[in-house]
Design a protein that fits this description.
With 160 residues, the chain is α+β, with helices and mostly antiparallel strands. The chain has helices spanning 10-26, 53-73, 112-148, 152-159; strands at 31-36, 41-46, 81-85, 90-96, 100-106.
Amino acid sequence: MPQSSFVMFEEEYREITAAVEKLLREANAKCVYLVDKDGQLISSSGETKDIDATSLASLTAGNIAATGGLAKLIGEKEFSILFHEGERDNLHISVVGQRVILVVIFDKRSSLGLVRLRVKKASEELGRSIQKLLDRMAADADKENLLKEITDDDIERLFH
């Protein structure tokens, strides 16, 4: 089934944003981004002003796609967690619900163990919110398809 872009509803957006902000605090991270697999930014929190969020989202999605190709080469479905260590900052990238990507940027104020622990907890919460959003999108699509099925002849018969 091809994946479509998210249609964000206010309630789910608030839930997702709250979960991202909670992860930022609990993991003692510099910033957290939630990106869809198409490379579109969904939510962010923390010290984000010096980071080009559009590029980060796009490159992260590309990174997940590339490592997905590597995973298939060795017989894995995907690598759900990636870690990049730098001199100052580190990136923890994880796939949530096979639909979105959670990016946590952290420095020496935190540790990989703490980030992994907090990401695991946040992923469950985000997974529920994303599923709720997808269910709502599907319900709205069903309503739209139902409306599309009504023809001009149906309307004529209704009023005559």
